[in-house]
């Protein structure tokens, strides 16, 4: 914080002479600082009329966009094109990007614009200031894709793919990879459409052969297009998903596994829960051994203990013969119910009630104690308050019964939640409540002797 | 909880912020998010048509928000402005002019070198010295009193041996006796004793250096602080206005601080009509706290509304009992920062790092006269089942910032979806910390760096947990992070990778954000974002369950308070300025309510300004405006205008804030005493006397005069020159009267020359009067023989700043061998004390007000006009 004022007070040194006077450097950069400074500008280098009008025009466009006045924005935009003739080369260079951003937005929302207008605009913009060619092509293709014009989008991407300008920089490379990947995705769409058609055809049909041949071709192209991008660290869910689907379809299970394993476990990638979920689903489809599934979900459990797959994880652990896994199964259930978004998850409560009882019956009191110790100071008010007893009963009686059992087991019969639910008189649930009472009496960890 | 089954593609790069070689894949287009990839098949051609994005326009009822409550009785001081702090100079030697804090780089003898290499110590720069010397004059008590106290014992001053052989020891006690009634509030013109003069000569060099350097440092520090505050005032991060829902969905309470120091917490009951029009029920109840309220947060936890307040150093949490009504403050219970089951925002501390307590205790109830909510000592008896913990729990401690070194002390904390995990944020990033885990560990949720493609100089200004708004629709794991450029949405299950990034483009710091429930089922959730300058934006966040959050439609800007200026009647410039200042006061609070079951969803928006005003705006959702229907422009209804005028009337009745700088007053008792026997006829002396007795600034109207005497070299109004006459009237603050006169009769030009004549008569009266005043002044028994008549004092010539700065402190720059001569000369000259009074008007600060005639100045002594910000206005 103190940096910027120091920057401001600090004597100017030689090397800063050419830089703009809004301090950036190491300190915080405040875009409104310039405005404050301009309020006192009485002399010195004045902005030229040209710069003044263009910057005024820009702010008018932005204002109109924020007020959804597309027509007005379009009119101003018409005048704003003059910035392309700015004598300031810096401004001239960034101008195409601004024009594209604002212009595409206007054309996207303007009630009178159509795909042709957009196409014309995009094609013009691609060639003004070559630096944006790739970005604009990509966005243009996305636009076309969403208007159902797959062919046009594909052509666009193909054109962009082969485009080169100057030395190949790393950012250019990433963009080209991205364009290729989108092209691959597009081909995947076409492929999956064909696949659907194929599934409707009879295998003995003549057409079947040609169609399947077609699909093969596509797959080969796509794999080249997709696999380059997904090596780069990032979140590439749609690409990975479609790539794996195609690999699987053609029986390349090892390739698919490798892609997914790499996507999930490469350390350079962000810890994306979906990567693990995809891998798990793949292994499940592959009918992998339980141990393998458990090991994948164990990692997902570390990242997202609240995921709905955790209940499946619990089931797997419960079925396992390993004692350690049984213990982990309890931990997983407690972990799921820690989260605010899962408090009303009836399956989780059902599992917990059942499994708690089972664990206590199997005299693993220590496991329960271990889990409960870190939660006993906040679960009672988080899950088992009087208010919740009333509202749970009102909203979902089965949930209330399950929770009552857990509350009784963990907190004893004196617990408010349990007392409140067990007092309730309900025809259908009478038996259930009776069972709950019995279980609590027998297994509650608070007074195990009784 | 569902996790989005397919996240939008994004590149993941690690590195510092401002990495330029990374392509920004997240093209900053609002329509980008409308283009989520079709899930499986290109059937998207039908359902991905962009019509989804075209709906959703909040249409305001009026062009701007309206005041909801009458203005508070306390005057409001808008503080310093950039114009007052910045000085721009030396531009001709620069290719790039550079604004400098209160300092000019123009040193005397301007050469290119001295301008581009101003390596001088800041304090010694001439213009700053000018200001400093002015400060020494105006606030002598502050500047010299501590030093004087230190030197209360006799002290010896060396120097000037040749002249003052006899006395180099001055008793400060005697000195103070002499000064009694004068200094430190003394009038510079009053009189000087020999002792004082000797002291001034002997002590001058010492005082001028030590005091000036010390004071200069402090003053500079203060100015820098003010400047930083002006650019970014983080105190009100999060917002100090809260809407506490009542028992019925239409009733609720606004909780906000008001009063001059924002130290009173007001509770105003408000009912929303079915149309969304709010109606204040009765007057607000209030409690007074011991410090300014910085943040007010409300949550409903398990059916119980909780209210949390953050002050500069304290936090408090109240539980209003259900039957609470405005005015019935007794049953308030105050806790310290209770971390109840997961749903109350912990009150983020500034610095030291956040310490939301773990299960906290119910403290003793401070009651309505609650002073600042103090941390209660050890709790006595646990009520209502809260577990007891007698101390604050430290959750996180790290003197360093999270990602890279940035010396900002700002820290922030909020909840996450896990009740025992909190986020801890600073300017560089946000971390998730397990309160039960070992200290120091945690997982970074947001990194100011290439991961979020942050720009150079980008910093976190606000972090907010969005899951509190009900877990039904949106993921309860979303966090909002605002920087000065962009807004990020992050899922705590996928740290570091923003799910959504949007350049908000707000022209001030976005410190307030509110996520609202969807106005109707199926519609996306509005996210309100407000800048410190009062600008408002609403974004729509769609995506629930298994789809990732995305922007639905382009963001929209909502009217800000300054847009309401047109609703108020046109005023004379001074009042107009005041009104404008009030309307453009920084925004410090934002709250919104969506009354249920309206045909078209209505959003009631409340804004709190730093002046303590609550404004209200009603917006209607146009879910699907036809493609050709232009956005209808709202206009002011007569009701709105009427309520505005009413508010304005109340505002103008509030006395304006006393100026920060007050003219030195002097002891007038003695003068009054000698004034008594004189039976001065006329209103003028009477007015002067009352003004003196009350110790307030003498205004021309106290003298019963039209304050027209030589205001400014205004052109002589010709008989028909209506405009200049009107301007002239406005200058005198009599625009309304002029208008009345103008309207009431077509008196025509006949009367105008008369008025003019009267004016000249009056001003001549005043000049003769001032002469008489001087005489009466002189007639008072002089306490010291050296006393001179100010009448005879020659006006110091207006000197250029460079010259003048060497005059005061007078000895600076004079060769030491000549100082003695000078000193002798000065001692002989009784004007020593008086001269700086004239010089104390720095010529660099000439403003229209200070152009008042020096003659009048002499007459009124230093009962001068408050100077400072006002002269800027209007003219």
TrEMBL record, chain A:
<dbReference type="InterPro" id="IPR039495">
    <property type="entry name" value="TAF1A"/>
</dbReference>
<feature type="region of interest" description="Disordered">
    <location>
        <begin position="1"/>
        <end position="25"/>
    </location>
</feature>
<dbReference type="GO" id="GO:0006360">
    <property type="term" value="P:transcription by RNA polymerase I"/>
</dbReference>
<protein>
    <recommendedName>
        <fullName>TATA box-binding protein-associated factor RNA polymerase I subunit A</fullName>
    </recommendedName>
</protein>
<comment type="function">
    <text>Component of the transcription factor SL1/TIF-IB complex, which is involved in the assembly of the PIC (pre-initiation complex) during RNA polymerase I-dependent transcription. The rate of PIC formation probably is primarily dependent on the rate of association of SL1/TIF-IB with the rDNA promoter. SL1/TIF-IB is involved in stabilization of nucleolar transcription factor 1/UBTF on rDNA. Formation of SL1/TIF-IB excludes the association of TBP with TFIID subunits.</text>
</comment>
<dbReference type="GO" id="GO:0005654">
    <property type="term" value="C:nucleoplasm"/>
</dbReference>
<comment type="subunit">
    <text>Component of the transcription factor SL1/TIF-IB complex, composed of TBP and at least TAF1A, TAF1B, TAF1C and TAF1D. In the complex interacts directly with TBP, TAF1A and TAF1B. Interaction of the SL1/TIF-IB subunits with TBP excludes interaction of TBP with the transcription factor IID (TFIID) subunits.</text>
</comment>
<keyword id="KW-0804">Transcription</keyword>
<dbReference type="GO" id="GO:0015630">
    <property type="term" value="C:microtubule cytoskeleton"/>
</dbReference>
<keyword id="KW-0539">Nucleus</keyword>
<dbReference type="GO" id="GO:0003677">
    <property type="term" value="F:DNA binding"/>
</dbReference>
<dbReference type="InterPro" id="IPR052669">
    <property type="entry name" value="SL1/TIF-IB_Component"/>
</dbReference>
<keyword id="KW-0238">DNA-binding</keyword>
<dbReference type="InterPro" id="IPR016629">
    <property type="entry name" value="RNA_pol_I_TAF1A/TAFI48_chr"/>
</dbReference>
<dbReference type="Pfam" id="PF14929">
    <property type="entry name" value="TAF1_subA"/>
</dbReference>
<keyword id="KW-0805">Transcription regulation</keyword>
<dbReference type="GO" id="GO:0005668">
    <property type="term" value="C:RNA polymerase transcription factor SL1 complex"/>
</dbReference>
TrEMBL record, chain B:
<dbReference type="InterPro" id="IPR049090">
    <property type="entry name" value="TAF1C_HB"/>
</dbReference>
<feature type="compositionally biased region" description="Pro residues">
    <location>
        <begin position="349"/>
        <end position="379"/>
    </location>
</feature>
<protein>
    <submittedName>
        <fullName>TATA box-binding protein-associated factor RNA polymerase I subunit C isoform X1</fullName>
    </submittedName>
</protein>
<feature type="domain" description="TAF1C helical bundle">
    <location>
        <begin position="577"/>
        <end position="770"/>
    </location>
</feature>
<feature type="compositionally biased region" description="Low complexity">
    <location>
        <begin position="827"/>
        <end position="839"/>
    </location>
</feature>
<dbReference type="InterPro" id="IPR038801">
    <property type="entry name" value="TAF1C"/>
</dbReference>
<dbReference type="InterPro" id="IPR049089">
    <property type="entry name" value="TAF1C_C"/>
</dbReference>
<feature type="region of interest" description="Disordered">
    <location>
        <begin position="691"/>
        <end position="725"/>
    </location>
</feature>
<feature type="region of interest" description="Disordered">
    <location>
        <begin position="335"/>
        <end position="390"/>
    </location>
</feature>
<feature type="compositionally biased region" description="Polar residues">
    <location>
        <begin position="761"/>
        <end position="770"/>
    </location>
</feature>
<feature type="domain" description="TAF1C C-terminal">
    <location>
        <begin position="796"/>
        <end position="875"/>
    </location>
</feature>
<dbReference type="Pfam" id="PF20641">
    <property type="entry name" value="TAF1C_beta-prop"/>
</dbReference>
<feature type="region of interest" description="Disordered">
    <location>
        <begin position="742"/>
        <end position="875"/>
    </location>
</feature>
<dbReference type="InterPro" id="IPR049087">
    <property type="entry name" value="TAF1C_beta-prop"/>
</dbReference>
<dbReference type="Pfam" id="PF20643">
    <property type="entry name" value="TAF1C_C"/>
</dbReference>
<dbReference type="GO" id="GO:0001164">
    <property type="term" value="F:RNA polymerase I core promoter sequence-specific DNA binding"/>
</dbReference>
<feature type="domain" description="TAF1C beta-propeller">
    <location>
        <begin position="386"/>
        <end position="467"/>
    </location>
</feature>
<dbReference type="GO" id="GO:0001650">
    <property type="term" value="C:fibrillar center"/>
</dbReference>
<dbReference type="Pfam" id="PF20642">
    <property type="entry name" value="TAF1C_HB"/>
</dbReference>
């Amino acid at each position: 914080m103190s940096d910027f004022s120091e920057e401001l007070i600090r004597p100017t040194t030689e090397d800063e002479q050419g830089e703009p006077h809004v301090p950036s450097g190491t300190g915080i950069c405040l875009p409104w600082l310039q405005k404050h400074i301009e309020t006192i500008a009485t002399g010195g280098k004045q902005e030229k009329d040209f710069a003044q009008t263009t910057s005024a025009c820009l702010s008018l466009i932005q204002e109109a966009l924020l007020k959804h006045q597309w027509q007005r924005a379009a009119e101003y935009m018409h005048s704003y094109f003059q910035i392309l003739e700015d004598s300031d080369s810096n401004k001239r260079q960034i101008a195409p990007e601004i024009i594209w951003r604002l212009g595409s937005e206007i054309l996207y929302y303007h009630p009178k614009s159509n795909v042709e207008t957009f196409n014309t605009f995009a094609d013009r913009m691609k060639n003004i200031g070559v630096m944006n060619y790739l970005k604009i092509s990509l966005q243009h293709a996305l636009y076309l894709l969403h208007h159902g014009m797959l062919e046009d989008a594909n052509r666009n991407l193909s054109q962009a793919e082969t485009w080169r300008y100057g030395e190949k920089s790393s950012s250019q490379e990433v963009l080209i990879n991205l364009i290729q990947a989108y092209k691959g995705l597009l081909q995947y769409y076409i492929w999956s459409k064909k696949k659907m058609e194929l599934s409707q055809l009879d295998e003995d049909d003549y057409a079947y052969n040609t169609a399947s041949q077609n699909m093969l071709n596509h797959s080969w192209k796509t794999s080249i297009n997709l696999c380059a991008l997904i090596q780069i660290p990032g979140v590439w869910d749609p690409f990975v998903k479609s790539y794996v689907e195609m690999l699987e379809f053609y029986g390349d299970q090892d390739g698919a596994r490798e892609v997914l394993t790499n996507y999930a476990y490469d350390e350079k990638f962000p810890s994306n829960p979906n990567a693990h979920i995809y891998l798990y689903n793949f292994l499940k489809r592959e009918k992998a051994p339980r141990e393998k599934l458990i090991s994948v979900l164990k990692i997902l459990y570390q990242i997202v203990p609240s995921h709905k797959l955790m209940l499946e994880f619990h089931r797997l652990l419960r079925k396992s013969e390993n004692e350690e896994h049984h213990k982990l199964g309890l931990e997983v259930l407690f972990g799921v119910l820690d989260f605010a978004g899962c408090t009303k998850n009836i399956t989780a409560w059902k599992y917990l009630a059942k499994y708690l009882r089972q664990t206590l019956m199997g005299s693993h009191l220590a496991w329960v104690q271990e889990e409960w110790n870190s939660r006993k100071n906040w679960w009672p008010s988080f899950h088992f308050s009087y208010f919740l007893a009333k509202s749970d009963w009102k909203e979902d009686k089965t949930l209330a019964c399950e929770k009552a059992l857990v509350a009784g087991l963990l907190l004893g019969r004196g617990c408010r939640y349990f007392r409140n639910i067990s007092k309730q008189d309900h025809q259908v649930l009478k038996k259930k409540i009776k069972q709950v009472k019995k279980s609590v009496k027998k297994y509650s960890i608070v007074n195990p002797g009784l | 909880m569902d996790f989005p089954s397919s996240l939008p593609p994004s590149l993941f790069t690690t590195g510092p912020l401002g990495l330029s070689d990374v392509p920004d894949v997240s093209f900053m287009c609002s329509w980008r998010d409308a283009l989520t990839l079709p899930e499986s098949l290109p059937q998207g051609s039908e359902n991905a048509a962009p019509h989804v994005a075209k709906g959703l326009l909040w249409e305001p009822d009026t062009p701007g928000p309206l005041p909801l409550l009458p203005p508070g009785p306390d005057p409001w001081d808008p503080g310093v402005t950039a114009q007052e702090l910045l000085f721009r100079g030396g531009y001709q030697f620069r290719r790039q002019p550079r604004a400098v804090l209160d300092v000019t780089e123009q040193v005397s003898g301007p050469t290119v070198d001295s301008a581009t290499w101003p390596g001088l110590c800041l304090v010694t720069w001439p213009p700053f010295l000018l200001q400093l010397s002015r400060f020494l004059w105006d606030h002598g008590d502050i500047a010299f009193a501590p030093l004087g106290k230190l030197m209360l014992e006799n002290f010896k001053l060396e120097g000037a041996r040749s002249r003052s052989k006899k006395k180099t020891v001055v008793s400060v006690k005697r000195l103070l006796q002499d000064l009694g009634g004068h200094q430190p509030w003394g009038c510079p013109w009053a009189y000087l004793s020999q002792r004082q003069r000797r002291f001034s000569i002997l002590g001058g060099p010492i005082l001028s250096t030590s005091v000036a350097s010390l004071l200069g440092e402090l003053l500079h520090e203060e100015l820098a602080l003010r400047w930083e505050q002006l650019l970014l005032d983080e105190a009100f991060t999060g917002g100090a206005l809260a809407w506490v829902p009542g028992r019925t969905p239409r009733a609720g309470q606004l909780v906000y601080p008001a009063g001059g120091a924002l130290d009173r917490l007001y509770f105003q009951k408000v009912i929303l009509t079915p149309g969304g029009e709010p109606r204040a029920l009765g007057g607000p109840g209030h409690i007074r706290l011991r410090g300014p309220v910085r943040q007010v947060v409300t949550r409903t936890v398990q059916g119980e509304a909780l209210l949390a307040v953050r002050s500069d150093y304290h936090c408090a949490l109240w539980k209003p009992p259900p039957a609470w009504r405005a005015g019935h403050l007794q049953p308030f219970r105050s806790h310290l920062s209770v971390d109840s089951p997961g749903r109350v925002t912990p009150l983020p501390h500034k610095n030291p790092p956040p310490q939301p307590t773990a299960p906290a205790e119910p403290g003793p109830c401070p009651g309505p006269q609650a002073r600042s909510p103090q941390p209660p000592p050890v709790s006595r008896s646990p009520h209502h089942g809260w577990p007891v913990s007698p101390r604050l729990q430290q959750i996180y401690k790290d003197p360093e910032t999270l990602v890279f070194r940035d010396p900002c002390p700002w820290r922030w904390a909020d909840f996450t979806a896990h009740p025992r995990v909190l986020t801890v944020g600073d300017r560089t990033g946000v971390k998730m910390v397990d309160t039960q885990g070992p200290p120091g560990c945690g997982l970074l949720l947001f990194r100011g760096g290439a991961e979020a493609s942050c720009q150079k100089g980008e910093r976190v200004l606000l972090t907010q947990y969005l899951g509190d708004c009900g877990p039904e629709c949106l993921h309860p794991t979303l966090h909002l992070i605002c920087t000065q450029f962009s807004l990020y949405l992050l899922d705590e299950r996928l740290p570091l990778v923003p799910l959504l990034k949007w350049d908000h483009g707000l022209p001030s710091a976005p410190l307030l954000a509110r996520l609202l429930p969807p106005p109707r089922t199926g519609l996306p959730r509005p996210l309100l974002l407000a800048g410190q300058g009062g600008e408002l934006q609403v974004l729509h966040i769609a995506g629930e369950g298994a789809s990732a959050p995305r922007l639905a439609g382009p963001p929209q800007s909502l009217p800000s308070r300054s847009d309401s200026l047109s609703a108020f009647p046109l005023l004379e410039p001074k009042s107009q300025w005041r009104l404008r200042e009030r309307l453009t006061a920084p925004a410090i609070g934002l709250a919104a309510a969506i009354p249920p079951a309206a045909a078209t969803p209505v959003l009631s928006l409340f804004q709190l300004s730093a002046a303590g005003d609550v404004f209200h705006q009603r917006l209607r959702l146009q879910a699907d405006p036809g493609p050709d229907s232009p956005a209808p422009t709202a206009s002011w209804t007569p009701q709105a205008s009427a309520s505005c005028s009413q508010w304005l009337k109340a505002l103008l009745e509030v006395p304006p804030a006393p100026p920060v700088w007050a003219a030195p007053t002097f002891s007038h008792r003695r003068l009054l005493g000698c004034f008594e026997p004189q039976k001065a006829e006329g209103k003028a002396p009477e007015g002067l006397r009352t003004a003196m007795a009350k110790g307030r600034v003498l205004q021309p109207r106290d003298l019963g005069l039209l304050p027209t005497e030589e205001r400014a070299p205004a052109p002589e109004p010709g008989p028909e020159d209506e405009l200049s006459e009107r301007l002239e009237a406005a200058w005198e603050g009599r625009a309304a009267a002029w208008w009345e006169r103008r309207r009431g009769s077509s008196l025509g030009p006949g009367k105008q020359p008369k008025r003019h004549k009267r004016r000249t008569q009056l001003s001549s009266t005043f000049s003769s009067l001032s002469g008489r005043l001087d005489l009466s002044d002189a007639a008072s028994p002089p306490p010291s023989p050296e006393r001179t008549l100010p009448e005879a004092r020659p006006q110091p010539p207006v000197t250029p700043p460079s010259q003048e700065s060497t005059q005061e402190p007078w000895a600076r720059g004079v060769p030491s061998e000549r100082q003695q001569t000078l000193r002798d000369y000065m001692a002989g000259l009784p004007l020593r004390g008086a001269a700086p009074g004239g010089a104390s008007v720095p010529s660099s600060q000439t403003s229209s007000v200070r152009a008042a005639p020096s003659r009048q100045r002499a007459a009124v002594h230093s009962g001068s006009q408050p100077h400072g910000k006002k002269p800027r206005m209007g003219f």
